[in-house]
Design goal:
7 helices, globular, 3-stranded antiparallel sheet, alpha/beta, 10 strands, about 280 residues, 7-stranded mixed sheet
Length: about 280
């Protein structure tokens, strides 16, 4: 049975959205609480699109079956793979079906409970991506589909931890909201097509309660920042994928929509390798 999440915010509470500085500790606390409270709704809203055992890189619907960003599916057999920010571990379930040995890690205990509900024989780990509880060189591959990286104050801590637990030659592929989206309102309609703020403003987006405590935090990095973070953390960037919006996808997901997706990129996928 899935336990009820702890009520960390009053029912009907509407947080205040702002841009302000926030610490790494505040970010972790806020985002763990937010995902624990919202995991049920997230899985209800997006579970059908994500499937139970698909590997989807983002709202555009780019599937690893077609993209092969981790390599050909037949080469995944026997590989140790770490999924970071796994949610209900849909990607890990797909990896296991290819014969890989995945480990699904998430900051949110509630999200991982949904993985238990769906089922699977791979390990689930509740931990902070900036302090991975694994020995050096434990994995051949690592992946993160919109997990962890957008929500941490210092992404280099996560990248260095991933580099530490990867074996030499290991690959890390992660997707995030495309940095250009930060200049536009997070709206799927025409109102989301006009620049509203500076792309270069790296002040975090924060939702906070009446006492000013963060209940959700997201951090912005420019495209150049992401490239420099990758290089400074011991990786080589071997590809940068900006999925185009496919004609078959008529759904909206937050600020992602066919209207916006046909005009500006919504997702950036970084393919990195460790020497």
């Amino acid at each position: 049975m899935i336990q009820e999440p702890e009520a960390l915010a009053p029912e009907g509470f509407e947080p205040e959205a702002t841009r302000r500085e926030t610490s790494a500790t505040e970010s972790v606390r806020a985002n763990r609480g937010w995902w624990d409270r919202n995991a049920d709704e997230y899985q209800i809203d997006h579970g059908t699109f994500l499937g139970d055992d698909r590997f989807v890189w983002g709202p555009e619907g780019l599937d690893e079956v077609e993209a092969e960003l981790l390599g050909p599916p037949e080469d995944l057999k026997g590989k140790d793979v770490l999924e970071i920010g796994a949610g209900a571990a849909q990607c890990s379930r797909w990896l296991a079906a290819q014969g890989a040995r995945p480990v699904a890690l998430d900051l949110s205990h509630r999200q991982l409970q949904h993985s238990l509900r769906i089922g699977g024989s791979f390990p689930l780990v509740c931990a902070d991506a900036a302090a991975l509880p694994f020995a050096d060189g434990s994995f051949d591959l690592a992946c993160s589909a919109y997990g962890a990286l957008p929500f941490v104050a210092d992404p280099r801590l996560v990248l260095r931890e991933v580099g530490r637990v990867l074996r030499p030659g290991g690959r890390f592929v992660f997707s995030v909201t495309h940095p250009i989206r930060w200049a536009f309102p997070d709206e799927p309609g025409p109102e989301g097509l006009s620049v509203a703020s500076s792309y270069f403003d790296r002040t975090p987006y924060v939702e906070q309660d009446e006492e000013g405590r963060a209940v959700y935090v997201e951090h912005h990095r420019t495209l150049g920042d992401r490239v420099r973070d990758i290089a400074a953390s011991g990786f080589r960037l071997v590809d940068l994928v900006e999925p185009e919006w496919p004609a078959w996808n008529t759904s909206e997901w937050g600020g992602w929509s066919p209207l916006r997706g046909n005009l500006i990129p919504g997702t950036a996928i970084f393919v990195c390798e460790r020497d």
